[in-house]
Fold this sequence. Notes:
Helix content is about 15%, strand content about 35%. By secondary structure, the protein is an alpha+beta fold. β3 (about 50-55) and β4 (about 65-70) form a beta hairpin.
Amino acid sequence: MNALRPISDLIPVIALVLLAGCQEAASSNYQSARLEGEVTVDGQPIEDGTVQFVPANLADGPITQATIMKGRYVANKVPLGKVTAILHANPPAPPAQITSDYQTPKTVGIPNRYKTGFPIEVKENKADQDFPMSSKESGSKSPNTKQRS
């Protein structure tokens, strides 16, 4: 009987692992859409960065992330409903060898007022979910997402 006791002690642990696996599989079955578009500041593309789509209600689906490359992103499986798109710009990597005449390249970053994100509502696949930003302060504090026609 003593040989069986350690195995019986593991049964609750095994049950929890199996239950967690089932819950993870269930959470991957959420309604989603494919979004893509441009990310710019004053008309200049964000060269490298990420877009995170954070659902207002995490029960609607997981946080989804897409890479921004040369001002464009494609995000698969963005949960339907209200989400906040949070943008990040990565600074360029320095060259492997820096010479005395090296000048840091001018980069486009996310203006501070947009760092809290863009609230959007995802209803269906959308190939023109753009995020145009302005470095100049304007009367409106809330960011607008441009909808191309």
